[in-house]
Design brief:
By secondary structure, this protein is an alpha/beta fold. 30% of the residues lie in helices and 26% in strands. It has six helices and eleven strands. It is globular, with a radius of gyration of 15 Å. It starts with a strand and ends with a helix.
């Protein structure tokens, strides 16, 4: 049986930040389960950078079914956690089940990969303090307010936490996360 990795997300998550780790970790031999507020078909978005805009733009992206609802998740069944970005973390961070799940991974020193707006979730769960994390650059004040050190980097490793700014950082981010997984939670 393959080792299982949990990916927590919801509507308006960034398509690339869901699918790149989902597919790359499956390629490594892990089973990846997608958890969301409910079992339903999720609508992801595409965030892109357009000349003349002060921030990213958002367009409809892919859809994909959630494997399970947050309330159904037993985090003890999983060896690692992925928290993609997009707009989903803005509302997911308020979900008590997401907070319960995230605390389990941090308290158990299990590998966690977070990217872009994903650190909003770990900050709300109260587990980012004292750590070092990358995030989408506009979140620097949020990361610091959570008691963490912000680093503007493509693959920031703090123990078992691996973070990045956004989807352009995927190769370095997943390479670093897979290195952590191979030591802490190899695919069965």
């Amino acid at each position: 049986m393959a080792s299982k990795i949990l990916l927590v997300t919801g509507d308006a998550a960034e398509s690339l930040e869901v699918f790149y780790p989902y597919q790359r970790l499956r390629e490594e031999g892990y089973q990846v389960d997608i958890a969301a507020p409910s079992r339903k078909r999720l609508q992801f978005v595409v965030h892109d950078f357009v000349d003349g805009y002060d921030t990213y733009t958002e367009k409809p992206g892919y859809t994909w079914p959630a494997d399970l609802a947050f309330a159904e998740v037993d985090p003890a069944e999983y060896v690692a956690l992925v928290i993609p970005g997009g707009r989903a973390p803005e509302y997911l961070r308020n979900d008590p089940d997401v907070q319960r799940i995230v605390r389990h991974f941090f308290e158990g020193e299990k590998p966690v990969a977070q990217i872009c707006h994903g650190p909003l979730v770990s900050a709300a769960a109260g587990v980012l303090g004292g750590r070092t994390s990358a995030a989408y650059p506009a979140l620097e004040p949020d990361v610091k307010a959570a008691g963490a050190t912000y680093v503007d980097g493509e693959a920031v490793v703090d123990g078992v936490l691996v973070s990045a700014r956004a989807w352009p950082d995927h190769p370095a981010w997943l390479r670093a996360f897979i290195e952590v997984l191979r030591v802490k939670a190899p695919a069965a």
